[in-house]
Automatic annotation (TrEMBL):
It comes from the Bacteria. GO terms for molecular function: peroxidase activity. GO terms for biological process: response to oxidative stress. InterPro entries: KH_dom-like_a/b (IPR015946), OsmC/Ohr_fam (IPR003718), OsmC/Ohrsf (IPR036102), OsmC_Ohr_Peroxiredoxin (IPR052707), Peroxiredoxin_OsmC (IPR019904). This is Osmotically inducible protein OsmC. Gene3D superfamilies: 3.30.300.20.
Length: 142
């Protein structure tokens, strides 16, 4: 069954001096200010497309990894994933770096790294970002 989620943005003004508001329509979680300055300098309490992509990538990877672990017979206690999405003005989004640590009873380091690597490429958001460099640092917590 397909699922569609919706967000929208209203932008006023030019790129450099203008500003917008992005709303999460499907969840109703809120409306967030976006600006060029938040995208290229300090965020100043505003968000950017890259931060929204980073949130999506970290959540998707965590879900894909947890699912892959379950398929291999492991039950993770906790998976913590951070995504750093890089934007270069004039070039675009150049990469997403995932940093993940997890507590998983009974798994070996080799199996952990194998499953993490498969989840990195198997995550649907990674697939959507296939044109950029995606890297992963995965740490097994004991």
């Amino acid at each position: 069954m397909a699922a569609t989620r919706t967000a929208h943005t209203v932008w006023n003004g030019n790129l450099i001096e203008g500003a917008g508001k992005t709303s999460f329509d499907s969840s109703g979680l809120g409306t967030y200010d976006v600006t060029w300055k938040a995208r290229t300098e300090q965020s100043g309490g505003k968000t950017s497309p890259e931060e929204l992509i980073a949130a999506a990538h970290s959540a998707c990877f965590s879900m894909a990894f947890s699912h892959a672990l379950a398929g291999a017979g492991y039950a993770p206690e906790e998976v913590r994933t951070k995504a750093d999405v890089t934007f270069v003005p004039g070039t675009g989004i150049t990469g997403s770096h995932l940093t993940m640590s997890a507590k998983i009873p009974g798994i070996t380091e080799e199996e952990f790294q194998r499953i993490a690597g498969e989840a990195k490429t198997g995550c649907p958001v990674s697939g959507a970002l296939a044109s950029i460099d995606i890297t992963l640092d995965a740490t097994l917590d004991n």
